[in-house]
Amino acid sequence: MTSSDTLQSDITLPQPLLRGQRQHSPDLFHALSQATNVLLKLQRTDGYWWFALEANESIGAEFIFLMHFLEKIDADILHGIAHRLRDVQRDDGTWSLYYQGPADLSVTIECYFALKLAGDDPVAPPMLKARDFILRHGGIEKARIFTRIHLALFGIVPWSACPKMPVEVMLLPEWFPLNIYEFSSWARASIVPLLIVLSKRPVQKISIDLEELFCHPPKKRRYGFKSLNGLISWDAIFIHLDRSMKAASKIPFKPMRQLAFEKAKKWIQDHLEQVEDIYPALAYAAIGLKSLEPSHDSPEMKKALEALKMFQQRYATLDLPRLPAEIKDDGVTPPSLLRVRGIDPKHDASEERGSKIHQQCCISPVWDTPWACVALAEAGLPKDHPALLHASRWLLKKQITYMHGDWSIKCPHVEPGGWSFEFENTYFPDVDDTIQVVHVLKKVKLPEKEVKPAIDRALTWMLAMQNDDGGWGAFDKNNNQELVNKIPFSDHGACLDPSSPDITGRMIELLATEGMSVSDDPVHRAIQYLVRTQEDFGGWFGRWGINYIYGTWAVLTGISALRKRSLSPLLRRGADWLKSIQHADGGFSESPESYVQKTYVPLTKSVPSQTSWAVMGLISAGEEASPEVERGVEYLLKNRNAEGMWDEKEYTGTGFPGHFYIRYHGYRHYFPLLALARYHEARFGIPSFS
Length: 690
Hints:
Number of helices: 25
Distance between the termini: 29 Å
CATH architecture of the largest domain: Alpha/alpha barrel
Number of domains: 2
Mean pLDDT: 92
CATH class of the largest domain: Mainly Alpha
Low-confidence stretches: 1-24, 227-242
Strand content: under 5%
Largest sheet: 3 strands, antiparallel
Shape: globular
CATH topology of the largest domain: Glycosyltransferase
Structural class: mainly alpha
Number of strands: 7
């Protein structure tokens, strides 16, 4: 069962009559109707939409490491993940960060190690190919920091190969430049348990090693941290500081250490009670607690492990299915509480069959649901349709109104009112999800007494979260201390959550629907931020979607909503840039490599979700009748599959720019539908079902 039998049996979708139908191709009418019907059928029993998230294979590999470190090996899961790793290994023996991306050294090392733990023969041809690639690229000594940490847990590399971060960091006051609240929410949730791990330095004995993946004998191995900015730089200072901390760690007298361990443990326990969010945070929490008490399996450790199992998808098909097995969540009782009561949160485990297991990095129901709702509403579904009302009431129940989460450290004088990305994540609501949920609540026909308090509370919270530079980040206010990204631990450079043009543009759009204008201080400051961050070529950076296409779409949508003539030059430059990158087939695309090159890099083929963003950006800029928009729409109409939806294997979502990307399986469903709906509204009037 992939949708609600009870709900869907009540849905009778009449044959739609699109206003302006006689003025345009029947293909548009048919596409809107067909995609609407499909998306409705994908709604889950409790009212939400939830699609798979696909990242790189280090996530599955690290779950195998986790089971071995905790000594909780589930043979079925072990072999299921190993099957998946073999299945997606490329012909050259490597694994990458994203579909058709370049081979990645660290991911390949982790997958090789995981398969060896699963019993794969290291002299089998696929393993030999992986080994050859690893050795040609410097071996384990060149692996990223987080890979080294996982290897150190099993004695593959010494703990001296990892940065030294003493657990006493937990005791630093909030005014200190490098206290834990200067790290982004996702980094913080990993760093706190890793402070325990890096101080305890546990080693779990296993029966294998990885000597074949080293380029040098043990005494000649070097695991230094390269400074990119010369001798007199923060990079170099922190590298020298790391060496000093390693020397100091040998001093036996550490009067504050036990207090720091207790504070870190309590932080983890408090957060695990309310959070089932992303893979690294949950996995490191379990590892940290096990490192503190090796002989004790704490309830929090078990909770983290069970939550991660809920992220898993079992399947038999060639490609990963778009829908994970349905989870019970009525909006009030979260999955973790069901497990405490002895109830399996999965509606029907038999939904998932097959010998392959995919470990998701995260789960996205509170992101997928409002986007699906907005797409359906703008495609012409009545605003009081049962599917929209059911979803909206589910979202209302998910608003976080009682927990002053980590965000409140820097934004203390406001009541909570946001939404998080997942089923259960009360410590970490985010502005991006909250924006989209409020859009839905403003569109559907629910009684004002149900939606107005929620909208008002959300707007108050989001306005308070505006950064001093005028923009908005995702999870925290003023989380922009650049020193944080200079420590050796941050070799991925993703330990901050500063303002981003995409969220700022989306926030301006929402404020415009509330009647705000450039004369209102929050909007004025946000516009100034966007003026400063516009790229020389005319587009904007996209933090949470790839990349300049995503950011430019969000900003153009926000600026155009203000209907201010003086902002036309900003719109014009952004629109002109989008026009300049259109492919010959009418579509658009962008590679994750654009984050590495720091400029737009196209893919060799068009991508439906990115084409949709570009089309919507151009429509926002008043280009709905332009040849570029017409060709973009034609691309979407011509590239539907037999179901009436779109196919897309490309990764268009961003976790950490340059390091971690996501294939959102919902993006190919609701974004093309939304783009076609906005095109129809701009050209022929609002679509409607009658």
